[in-house]
Amino acid sequence: MEKREQIYEEKAKKVYATEDPALVIVSYKDDATALDGLKKGTISGKGAINNRMSNFLMGLLEKEGVPTHFVKELSDRETVVKRVSIVPLEVIIRNISAGSFAKRYGVEEGIVFDSPTIEFSYKNDDLHDPLINSYHAVALKLATEEEIARIKEMAFQVNKVLKAYFAGLGVTLVDFKLEFGRLPDGTVVLADEISPDTCRFWDSKTGEKLDKDRFRRDMGGVEDAYEEMKRRVLGG
Ligand code: UDP
Question: What is the Å distance from ligand 1's center to 216 Cα?
């Protein structure tokens, strides 16, 4: 697979064209941003950890019937994925209250929900990714009603699989963000990444945070938390 011109660069990744128009190469960076881009920094080793962990989890999800964009890991930081047109929605699943949910509704973090919740944000930097409901998403033609139904179904299936998987590693899956893309034939697949950048992971015994909240909240031990998650998921 040949890496050709850079198609675009986002906060934590670069995306390159290949000789195959249906495939692109994603290159994961160590750069981290938070608080709507106001906070910038580097998490040393993050790119390689997120790349490898995300690929592993996508493989697991494929086996459990969730189609993804994953094709082939090329190196520590680089992966071939199917070229998709991204559905401009951030899909957030929550099992336990935390972050913006706790803030918005004035409740403490750590409330365990009887069933998981789903919400959408409109991926739009100028508007700061506002919360959006599915009717508004359809009205704005961000996705069709059928696509939203499929996305909901896949997102809850991802939660079911990952929640059980992480529980086996002594990790509580608190919440996470997914993104979906359309293949040329219209099939919706899971895209983007699943990593400590996009999930909240709490140690099941101690409650210790093992994710990007350590960076967002200036807690220290950021690299160690990513390493610990890598160790639990990938070993070594
Ligand atoms: N999340 C993400 N990207 C975003 C916003 C949120 O990956 O732009 C993830 C975040 O890591 C957490 C979940 O989505 O696992 C829920 O985040 P929340 O809405 O609580 O927002 P935050 O408190 O991170 O601003």
Answer: 10
* End-to-end CA gap in the chain: 28
Q: Which of 10, 13, 92, 121 to mutate to test the pocket of ligand 1 (most atoms within 8 A of CB)?
A: 92
In this structure, are 98 and 206 located in the same domain?
Answer: yes
Per-residue pLDDT tens digits for 4-39: 999 999 999 999 999 999 999 999 999 999 999 899
The answer to whether the predicted template modeling score (pTM) of the entire model surpasses 0.90 is yes
**201 and 100 in a common domain:** yes
Distance 82 CA to ligand 1 centre (A): 25
200 lines ligand 1 (CB under 6 A): yes
Q: Is residue 202 part of a domain?
A: yes
